[in-house]
Task: structure prediction
Amino acid sequence: METSTTDVSGVVRLLPLGDTAWTVEFGDRIDPALHARVLGLAGALERARTTGPSGEMAAEYAGIVDVVPTFRSLTVHYNPLVSDGERLGEALVCLAQTSGATSKAGRYWRIPVCFDDEFAPDLNDLAETKGLSRETVISLMTEATFQVYMIGFMPGFPYMGGLPAVLEVPRLAAPRKAVPARSLAITGAMCAVYPWESPGGWRLLGRTPVPMFSVDDPISPSLLASGDRVCWQAVDRPAYLEMEQAARIGALDRSRFLVPEGEG
Amino acid sequence: MSGLIEVVDGGIGNSIQDFGRPGFRHMGIAVSGCLDSMLARCAKALVGNAADCACIEIRAVGPTLAIKSGRVRVALAGELSATARSVDGITREVGAWMSVTLFPHDVLEVGTLQGGTAYLAVTGGIDSPLQLGSRSTYQRAMIGGIDGRAIVTGNLLPCSSQDQREYREYQADPWRYAEGPIRVMLGPQQELFQPDSVEQFLNSDYRVTPQLDRMGVRLEGARLAHVTPEAADIVSDAVTPGVIQVPGNGQPIILLADCQTVGGYPKIATVISADLPRLAQLQPGQSVRFRAVTAAQAKQALLAGAAQWETWASGIAFGLPNVTALYNDPTSCWVSTDE
Result:
């Protein structure tokens, strides 16, 4: 994770999302240090749910149906007929006060991207605006490591930090009606990949052949998860097309893009 | 023996739904499921199905269905009715809140919906493929249902076939919703609104606009002011069905079952789970009002809803079979089976 000098020892807020969810909020900004605390709580909760003091799941956790990490908070959705909301809230605050920031990084991915003009309609404009060469922009993108803050907006859509500051750019004034699926996109200090064709205003710098979302993978339909790290590997058009074709017939093993532990 | 239903006309706004797809929200996957879980449960109970079966959610114009094989008991719950036609041209009206059993070649033409949402349940539930643990259609990601889409003409819907010895039909009273304002718990970001706007939110009528789908309902009414214009945009955090978010224009949006998992507008309040089914019945032009309750009151409301369900379900009565239909049933023991 990036280091930050921000003080994140501040007050943890417990906010009700109606009678079916609690949001444990660590702050109101996008900040790697806040996100580390979100992941810290997510990890502590996972441990508490699977290995309670007596080896069984504590009753207050029994009704949890979803745990959603975001930039700055962790939301715990629960079934109010199973969990006592009040006791669950208290338990979450206790965990949050002691869970600290996570030191355990998520998975590390090296994901191919083709930066050919056809796939990168905003690459030349961005380079020109920033007074950089096209090749420099590509190098900046492929040399940086991006951190996944959260998955949202649409299934499998990763909000990633770590964009080199020199590339920060506002959204398009007029969003595109249809961004092609698997487009690598940036805006503000964020980077993402559109899992589906959809409307969108982010700047498109390339395209990956790797599906960001696959319903055929029941364990992890979303390729990426909050806490993962990603670097982009430039590939040429033939390599891109070959992998895209393999993905189309279900023959692209997504795990080959995982970087083994130790190499990250 | 299994049942098979052909969609002769898909109608408008009809989708296969069950209790939804929890457990995947951290991957950006909406929870989905029946918008009105109580009404869906009623329809399923009227055909003798378990509560977790899939049924057809009707939002505008009902579908027309033809039985291809099996004996299929069907029931409607909601403000609509249907016409059943047998192969020899005998027609009968099929009201909601009662089951009827259909036979091969029978056609069921479901009418236009008067309310906001209704359900059609069939024997054994719609047996479309499970995806990520659910049959619920989630169109944004093309998951569930048939090919991830609303029901369309030509779809084939597998289900079970009714036991031959079971000729009785079920009927019950219409489900009655709680009355009065929609109950909410304030927050999680009510402090990002000016105090008098929170008061206004709780004390004025909001009109339901035509911008309404399975993701949410846009309302129109007294403009709600954020503490500063900048407060209208927050760093995204999680949302859930029932959340009432307010963008910069000050007009509230209630999120429903297919809503995104995270959002960047401040949330003034969240509808309590007991009142979520009522949101499914909102229609353009209607007025709604909100009332703030405590967590304890939300729990009481939920328990009251569960008790109301028990009472309703215990009132399900057995009706007599439709004798005409019985004679028309080629699988019936009352008819010679020599061919």
About this structure: Chain A has a mean pLDDT of 91.
